[in-house]
């Protein structure tokens, strides 16, 4: 496992291009595009203001930089560095900007979700979509990029519009039976749309591409409901994480629940392996302490190293007592992700923030629990294999694979708190992002995946 | 209480009865009361009669008393005490016979009355004890009743409490339910209100949005613009097309195509899965058939028509299915066929398994049967044997019982009881007993011998004393009568000859008393017997020596004896004589004494000689 040198970064804005050749990162108002392999700067663009959002176009030819404060979007071409494009939303303001899947249109959401403006880079044409719903996940594109589903709100009722992305023609428009729709998500095969209601009500609706309601699922009533939803890459399962600390998995044939995964605070099943991160006791022999203490710079590891230990069962995990009188309590399944090969599901229960639960989807049971020393900030599966990268906001990155897990200290001078991470397409490298810096971690060899 | 009461005299008992009667009257049954009254009235009467008699008859009023008694007796139905007289004027004579008869009858009556009284008393006692018992029972039952009543009350109390609790809980539950209902209602109303408010707010918000939209969007905002260097080509390289009805239709088509593709894909997957499952089913079926076919002959033979038919059906089905390519058939028919055949198969398999189970159990049973058939004779033999054994055992038990009875009958005999106590050692005991008797005999013999020896010793001592005295007297005589020396000398010679005869007595006896040989010869004739005896009995050395000497002697004399009396040596006699001989040997110390005394005499003589020498 090798680490690159540290580069400057702001706003956690660093992204690999979809083709995996480039790495874009932002430093204040500058956009830097590097070669992934050499890490040499290929292009350097200067925007008008501090960049708040960047996005690669699907063909990796353009990069969109959004400056929401200014209501500005600047687009840069990688092929023609001189080419420039600036979209000003004016007094309408800007809260979100994204590419259409074809990479030739930009969808800008104005303030107060008044409308969505679709700007084309090919023609002069500008399209407006009225009444977009202000919600968590209101726009979703199918994987093949043909269709876009958009949540709308008109007359206190939720609607969904399905557009054909090629010409932005409205294909379907239908009302959904929801109180307050919060999110929509296409199945990876692009034929089923999952719609979930506000957290006040546990309700999942499944619509076909042609707008037919396929099924409705509700696990319970009178309690906080759905918190997170994700499709399995095969579109076979829909995992629903809810505020009751359970993940329910629906199948794609009958749309009924197959199983539910509870996240109890104590793990006692002897079949489950619990990896517990533990601090390595510093080796302080008499002779090991050199007399003139070396300079801080000489010691790259400012904090003690940690390792994973296999905890003896039963293990009781650290739980967080949620504050119940506040909105958005820290309970329930806040994060869940299927591994790209469909075999595993990683989840995090927000009131057990230090633990990552990895479920065996084939056997539909808990497989491994990782308990970290700090709350898990984010985790992401390797796009190529069942390998999970976890960061906890500390100076370490954690990798888990079915063979074991490892805790890796980022060998960087000074503090490097890994706040976020993202995998390269190939799964060979990993970008580790801290508040002000980022570095790449290369995993070409399998040596890093040894057991702790 | 009743026991000592019966012993006391009737009057006392009656008084105590009276007491008891009065004390217990309240609780007595009427019948018992009645009997008591009768008893009490009868007894004081007799007492009164006694006391009355003392003053009843005096010298003066004999006549009146007699007449009174007569009257009384006649009124009670007794014959008149006076003789029947012709004239009524005449003074009637007292009929002694009648008086006596009356007395007798009265006495008999009295006795009867007493007996009846006794009976009644005992009955009364019985009844009294019964009464007591019943009273105690009654008290006990009353107590029980009381306790059970108390218990019942306690239980009722508990029940009441529990019911109370239950009611309270019910009330609480109801309250809680009401609360829940209320809360739910509140929630619902809040929710509706919230929704209402939300909607109102949202409408306001929408209005505002609309207004904002109008304000922001409708005014041609110069700022809203895209500043682009040059338009880029589309990603697919095509030119954008106009939006027309055609494109719309095309989009629809495409969408449906996509959906169709997806459904087709899913159908294919499902078909594949189905095919796999069918394959598995088919394989399973085949395996089942192949598994079942070898056994199928036997079950058919066993008149299992239904399953046999099922199998044949299945075979037909299988054949059909195999002939037709089932995968081309429409789903329903195939499914029906498959499910039917599988069901049949399954039924067959189930029945087969059941049959196997039955067979297994049967095999077990049959195995037993076969063994039985094989070993019937053995079995019979065995039973016979067992019966014999039982009989033997019964006999044993019988004998044991008899022995036990005998033992009980003749418990005085120690030996037999001890023998009977463990009859298993009967024989041994008998043997031991025999030995014991033998031993006893021997012991007796020894005792006798010892006694004889002591006697002999005593006698010897006495003789010696006598001899000493004789000697002393002789010496005195010698001293005193020097003149009668010759006479004394002849006597002395006589004495000496008599004494010396003991030293070679055999010669003497042989020569002088040939008749005495007879017992000797007999004893020598039964030499073996005696030797045996000597062997078995620890013979004293003196006797053995004596025997030996005698046998030595007898050898000399045997021929003579045999020649003299050949008829007399009969085996029976020999045996008897032998025994006698032993007895004589033991009991005849005379000869030995003679020998011994002779020796002693000789010794003394030598002493005397020595004494004489100086």
Automatic annotation (TrEMBL), chain A:
Name the GO terms of the biological process aspect: mitotic spindle assembly; positive regulation of non-motile cilium assembly
InterPro entries documented for this protein: Centrosome-WD_assoc (IPR052778), WD40/YVTN_repeat-like_dom_sf (IPR015943), WD40_rpt (IPR001680)
Q: Which domain of life is it from?
A: Eukaryota
What SMART domains does the entry give? Answer: WD40
> SUPFAM superfamilies given for it?
Tricorn protease domain 2
Gene3D superfamilies with a match to the protein in the record? YVTN repeat-like/Quinoprotein amine dehydrogenase
Q: What Gene Ontology cellular-component terms does the record carry?
A: centrosome; ciliary basal body; MWP complex
PANTHER family this protein is in? WD REPEAT PROTEIN 8-RELATED, WD REPEAT-CONTAINING PROTEIN WRAP73
Protein name (database record): WD repeat containing, antisense to TP73
- Provide the species name: Loxodonta africana
Q: Which gene encodes it?
A: WRAP73
């Amino acid at each position: 496992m090798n680490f690159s040198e540290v580069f400057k970064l702001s706003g956690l804005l660093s992204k690999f291009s979809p083709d995996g050749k480039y790495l874009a990162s932002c430093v204040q108002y500058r956009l830097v595009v590097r070669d992934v392999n050499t890490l040499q700067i290929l292009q350097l663009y200067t925007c008008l203001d501090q960049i708040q959002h960047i996005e690669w176009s699907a063909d990796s030819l353009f990069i969109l930089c959004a400056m929401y404060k200014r209501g500005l979007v600047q687009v840069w071409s990688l092929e023609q560095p001189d080419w420039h494009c600036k979209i000003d939303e004016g007094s309408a303001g800007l809260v979100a900007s994204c590419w259409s899947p074809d990479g030739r249109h930009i969808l800008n959401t104005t303030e107060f979700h008044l409308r969505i403006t679709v700007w084309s880079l090919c023609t002069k044409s500008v399209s407006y979509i009225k009444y977009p719903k202000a919600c968590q996940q209101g726009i979703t594109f199918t994987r093949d990029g043909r269709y876009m589903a958009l949540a709308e709100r008109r007359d206190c009722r939720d609607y969904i519009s399905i557009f054909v992305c090629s010409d932005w023609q409205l294909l379907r428009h239908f009302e959904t039976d929801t109180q307050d729709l919060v999110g929509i998500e296409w199945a990876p095969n692009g034929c089923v749309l999952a719609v979930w209601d506000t957290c006040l009500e546990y309700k999942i609706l499944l619509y076909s591409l042609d707008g037919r309601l396929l099924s409705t699922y509700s696990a319970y009533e009178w309690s906080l409901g759905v918190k997170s939803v994700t499709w399995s890459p095969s579109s076979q399962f829909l995992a629903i994480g809810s505020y009751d600390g359970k993940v329910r998995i629906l199948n794609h044939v009958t749309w009924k629940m197959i199983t539910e995964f509870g996240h109890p605070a104590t793990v006692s099943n002897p079949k489950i392996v619990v990896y517990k991160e533990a601090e390595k006791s510093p080796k302080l022999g008499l002779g090991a302490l050199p007399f003139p203490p070396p300079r801080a710079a000489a010691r790259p590891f400012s904090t003690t190293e940690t390792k994973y230990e296999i905890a003896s069962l039963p293990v009781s995990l650290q739980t967080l007592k949620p504050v119940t009188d506040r909105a958005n309590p820290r309970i329930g399944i806040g994060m869940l992700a299927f591994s790209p090969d469909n075999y595993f599901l990683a989840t995090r229960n927000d009131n057990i923030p230090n633990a990552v639960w990895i479920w065996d989807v084939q056997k539909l049971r808990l497989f491994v629990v990782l308990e970290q020393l700090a709350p898990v900030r984010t985790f992401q599966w390797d796009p190529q294999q069942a390998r999970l990268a976890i960061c906890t906001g500390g100076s370490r990155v954690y990798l888990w694979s079915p063979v074991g897990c490892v805790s890796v200290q980022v060998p960087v001078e000074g503090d490097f708190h890994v706040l976020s991470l993202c995998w390269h397409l190939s799964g060979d490298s990993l970008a580790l992002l801290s508040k002000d810096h980022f570095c790449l971690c290369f995993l070409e060899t399998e040596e890093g995946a040894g057991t702790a | 209480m009743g026991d000592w009461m019966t012993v006391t005299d009737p009057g006392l008992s009656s008084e105590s009865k009276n007491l008891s009667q009065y004390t217990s009257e309240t609780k007595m049954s009427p019948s018992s009361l009645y009997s008591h009254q009768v008893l009490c009235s009868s007894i004081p009467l007799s007492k009164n009669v006694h006391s009355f008699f003392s003053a009843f008859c005096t010298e003066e009023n004999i006549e009146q008393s007699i007449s009174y008694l007569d009257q009384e007796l006649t009124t009670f139905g007794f014959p008149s005490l006076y003789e029947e007289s012709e004239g009524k004027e005449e003074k009637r004579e007292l009929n002694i016979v009648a008086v006596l008869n009356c007395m007798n009858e009265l006495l008999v009556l009295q006795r009867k009355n007493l007996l009846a009284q006794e009976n009644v008393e005992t009955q009364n006692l019985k009844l009294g004890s019964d009464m007591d018992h019943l009273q105690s029972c009654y008290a006990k039952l009353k107590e029980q009743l009381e306790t059970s009543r108390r218990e019942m009350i306690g239980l009722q109390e508990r029940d009441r409490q529990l019911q109370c609790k239950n009611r309270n809980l019910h009330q609480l539950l109801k309250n809680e339910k009401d609360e829940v209902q209320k809360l739910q209602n509140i929630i619902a109303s809040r929710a509706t209100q919230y929704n209402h408010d939300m909607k109102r707010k949202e409408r306001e918000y929408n209005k505002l949005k609309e207004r904002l939209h109008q304000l922001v969007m409708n005014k041609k905002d110069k700022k809203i613009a895209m500043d682009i260097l040059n338009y880029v080509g589309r990603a697919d390289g095509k030119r954008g097309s106009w939006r027309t009805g055609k494109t719309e239709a095309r989009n629809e088509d495409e969408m449906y195509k996509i959906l169709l593709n997806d459904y087709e894909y899913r159908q294919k997957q499902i078909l594949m899965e189905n095919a796999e499952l069918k394959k598995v089913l088919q394989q399973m079926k085949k395996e089942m058939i192949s598994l079942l076919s070898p056994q199928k002959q036997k079950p058919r033979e066993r008149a299992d028509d239904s399953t046999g038919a099922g199998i044949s059906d299945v075979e037909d089905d299988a054949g059909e299915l195999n002939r037709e390519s089932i995968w081309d058939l429409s789903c329903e028919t195939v499914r029906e066929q498959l499910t039917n055949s599988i069901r049949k198969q399954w039924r067959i398999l189930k029945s087969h398994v059941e049959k196997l189970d039955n067979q297994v159990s049967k095999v077990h049973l049959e195995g037993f049967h076969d063994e039985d058939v094989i070993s019937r004779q053995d079995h019979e033999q065995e039973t016979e044997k067992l019966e014999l054994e039982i009989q033997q055992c019964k006999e044993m038990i019988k004998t044991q019982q008899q022995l036990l009875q005998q033992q009980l009958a003749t418990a005085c005999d120690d030996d037999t009881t001890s023998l009977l106590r463990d009859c298993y050692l009967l024989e041994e005991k008998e043997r031991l007993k025999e030995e014991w008797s033998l031993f006893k005999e021997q012991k007796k013999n020894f005792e006798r011998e010892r006694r004889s020896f002591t006697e002999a010793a005593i006698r010897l001592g006495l003789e010696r004393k006598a001899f000493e005295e004789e000697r002393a007297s002789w010496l005195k005589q010698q001293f005193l009568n020097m003149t009668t020396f010759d006479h004394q000398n002849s006597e002395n010679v006589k004495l000496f000859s008599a004494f010396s005869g003991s030293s070679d007595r055999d010669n003497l006896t042989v020569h002088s008393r040939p008749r005495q040989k007879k017992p000797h010869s007999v004893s020598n004739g039964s030499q073996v017997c005696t030797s045996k005896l000597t062997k078995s009995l620890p013979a004293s050395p003196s006797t053995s020596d004596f025997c030996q000497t005698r046998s030595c002697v007898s050898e000399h004399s045997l021929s003579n004896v045999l020649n003299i009396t050949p008829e007399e040596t009969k085996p029976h006699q020999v045996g008897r004589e032998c025994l006698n001989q032993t007895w004589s040997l033991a009991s005849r110390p005379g000869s030995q004494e003679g020998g011994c005394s002779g020796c002693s005499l000789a010794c003394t003589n030598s002493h005397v000689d020595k004494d004489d020498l100086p």
